[in-house]
Amino acid sequence: MLEPSHNNELPVIPGKRYFTIGEVSELCNVKPHVLRYWEQEFPQLKPVKRRGNRRYYQRQDVLMIREIRSLLYEQGYTIGGARLQLSEEQSKDSKSLDPQVIKHLRMELEEVMDILRD
Q1: Could you give the CA distance from residue 26 to residue 110 in angstroms, rounded to a whole number?
Q2: Is 67:59 a contact under the CB 8 Å cutoff?
Q3: According to the 3-state scheme, what is the secondary structure of the chain?
Q4: Contact at 8 Å (CB) between 85 and 94?
Q5: How far out from the chain centre does Cα 97 lie?
Q6: Looking at the predicted structure, is the pLDDT value of residue 101 above 80?
Q7: Among 18, 30, 41, 113, whose CB has the most other CB atoms within 10 angstroms?
Q8: Within a domain: residue 85?
Q9: CATH number of the domain within which 97 lies
């Protein structure tokens, strides 16, 4: 198990679109075999797989891995507890939409419907 360290001590994520498993390993201070294991344990973590089954992680994947790392190594969660915590956070995020955002989306959808009717 890695020594506990803080995510703010991790390297800055470069402005690339895709990262290899080696790059993500360095960015998150987690070994590649651990990343592959976490893919099996956390349904939120789904890197793009291309030729030869190579994994390519996107920025949101790197952020998710850093969150998982924090839950496991710094906050002391078990794999099951971390999985539950992440799913609860996602359900809170999906339920707590700002009323102003909803109103704006509704107006945009109504405009699109008007355009389609013409």
Answers
A1: 46
A2: no
A3: CCCCCCHHHCCCCCCCCCECHHHHHHHHCCCHHHHHHHHHHCCCCCCEEEHHHEEEECHHHHHHHHHHHHHHHHCCCCHHHHHHHHHHHHHHHHHCCCHHHHHHHHHHHHHHHHHHHC
A4: no
A5: 19
A6: no
A7: 30
A8: yes
A9: 1.10.1660.10
Give the separation between CA 42 and CA 59, rounded to whole angstroms: 17
Range of 11's domain?
A: 7-117
Pick the closest to residue 69 from 59, 54, 79 (CA basis): 79
Give residue for tokens 């909803």: 102
**Domain count along the chain:** 1
Q: Is residue 49 a part of any domain in this protein?
A: yes
Cβ-proximal residues to 67 (8 Å cutoff; 6+ apart), any chain? 86
61: in domain: yes
Residue-wise pLDDT for 39-63, tens only, equals 999 999 999 998 888 999 999 999 9
Q: Assess whether pLDDT exceeds 80 at residue 94.
A: no
φ, ψ for residue 99 (rounded to 5)?
A: -55, -35
Percent pLDDT > 90 in the chain is 58
